[in-house]
Design a protein that fits this description.
The chain has about 450 residues and is α/β, with parallel strands linked by helices. It has helices at about 5-30, 60-65, 80-90, 115-125, 190-205, 240-260, 335-345, 365, 420-440; strands at about 35-40, 70, 75, 125-130, 150-155, 175, 180-185, 210-215, 265-275, 315-320, 330, 335, 375-380, 385-390, 395, 405. It has 9 helices and 16 strands. Mean pLDDT is about 95; it is low at about 1-30.
């Protein structure tokens, strides 16, 4: 073989290798699922038909549950910010150095050291889009979604009640697109419809050359409640029912768009609420049209938003992934919000951060390869650490006296068994103290 022939042969080999590599990358991209996160705000455990509500009509969310896996022991932060922090970073909130509040006027936000869900998936080749409420920092533009891994964002920087008379602030509550406020003031009534139209448009415009992450963080049913003219007065459950049924309509529209685009089979859809209902709302909220019955229901669970009884952190949660998750499953296995972050990085084949994560990879559990969730414990923070669940036992110390509940036989936390189970109290107290020391906080009540 002449030197010229050898050179041509080597170039041909490199060309073939490059084509094979490109083909493998394309196949890898096609196999990895799209990800759609549908995140309600303050929706309670008992607010959906598939979770037992006797009047609210939620056929689209119920169908989503029937086509996938419905979780009955899914836990997260007991209010907005820690829940969203767990989803976006896979970490308990005390690990994150926000350095300030993230509501109106707050100067805190996610530091650059956090490896966000959007950054991880974008780095792995995903197109990344967000709609709706952020609440993880806004005052400095570096904290906004488009500087945290999302290509696009249209939504609110924090909760929809950060306006007078509910919050005494002169900070304008406005809609952002990218990193600029584009509407102030604005009408909240059609907000769910506007977000839905944007979500459908993003799905319809998606080329399919790369997988997509779409994070839809609804403003509702956080108080003050708002529903469009199409849904106001349409339910049998008052204004709250109107709001929930409009959310259900929105879910249906997004699922239909996925189906029309041929994306449904290879899309992992995750639906959940950030925390339970605001039943114990502060006096500041009971004005300007808000009523106590405008909050949702935690169903049979004790407590509500802001509490570490189950009514605050245990929420409805559904996963549908037709190529992987067998339909019609209902599971009491313990799953936490940080697990969603860890699982999505796994299915996206994304790089993990070097720092400590609090989530577990659920892929084997979701596929049926494992019958048990990999999560054995969950720590409940409300500033300080207030409770822990390990297996079937939950210890809560926030009241100053230990409260021990056996969650398998008493999921509604009615019977305190601390007196009869001192060894279990001691064991779980030690677990709480070790975690508090690890993340740099205190155990409340000790």
């Amino acid at each position: 073989m002449t030197p010229q022939s050898m050179t041509k042969y080597i170039l041909l080999c490199f060309s073939l290798l490059a084509l094979l590599t490109l083909g493998a990358d394309a196949l890898r991209g096609a196999e990895r699922p799209n990800v759609v996160i549908l995140f309600a705000d303050d929706m309670g455990y008992g607010d959906l038909g598939c979770y037992g509500h006797p009047q609210l009509k939620t056929p689209n969310i119920d169908r989503l549950a029937a086509e996938g896996m419905r979780l009955t022991s899914f836990v997260t932060g007991s209010w907005c910010v820690p829940s969203r922090a767990q989803l976006i970073t896979g970490r308990y909130m005390p690990r994150i150095q926000f350095k300030g509040g993230t509501g109106a006027g707050g100067r805190g936000g996610l530091p650059a050291s956090e490896w966000t869900l959007a950054e991880a998936l974008r780095d792995a080749g995903y197109r990344t889009h967000m709609l709706g409420k952020w609440h993880l920092g806004y005052k400095d533009k570096q904290f906004l979604p488009v500087h945290q891994g999302f290509e696009t964002w249209f939504g609110l920087p924090y909760s929809n009640d950060y306006i007078k008379p509910w919050v005494q602030t002169d900070e304008p509550l406005g809609l952002y697109r990218g990193d600029e406020m584009v509407e102030h003031p604005f009408d909240q009534d059609p907000l769910t419809q506007r977000y839905t139209a944007e979500a459908v448009k993003l799905i319809e415009q998606h080329s399919g050359e790369q997988p997509m992450l779409l994070y839809m963080a609804y403003a509702m049913p956080h108080l003050p409640l708002h529903a469009s003219d199409d849904f106001r007065g349409s339910s049998q459950f008052g204004l709250y029912g109107d709001v929930i049924e409009e959310l259900d309509w929105s879910v249906g529209e997004i699922l239909a768009a996925l189906a029309r685009q041929g994306m449904a089979e290879n899309t992992l859809v995750f639906f959940a609420s950030d925390n339970g209902p605001w039943v114990e709302m502060p006096p500041r909220m009971l004005q300007a049209g808000n009523e106590r019955w405008h909050a949702g229901s935690a169903g049979p669970l004790r407590g509500s938003k802001g509490m570490t009884y189950e009514g605050g952190p245990r929420v409805p949660a559904i996963l549908r992934w037709p190529t992987t998750i067998e339909p019609g499953q209902v599971t009491p296995e313990l799953v936490g919000m940080p697990d969603i972050y860890r699982t999505l990085l796994a299915v996206a084949e994304a790089k993990l951060p070097e720092h400590e994560l609090d989530g577990h990879d659920l892929t084997a559990f979701l596929s049926g390869a494992e019958k048990r969730s990999p999560r054995d414990d969950y720590f409940y923070f409300r500033g300080q650490l207030e409770a822990v669940r390990v297996g079937d036992w939950k210890l809560r110390t926030a009241s100053g006296e230990p409260e021990l509940f056996h969650m398998a036989s008493d999921p509604f936390e009615r019977i305190n068994r601390a007196e009869s189970e001192p060894d279990k109290v001691a064991e779980l107290t030690a677990r709480m103290q070790a975690m508090a020391d690890e993340v740099g906080t205190q155990v409340r009540g000790l």
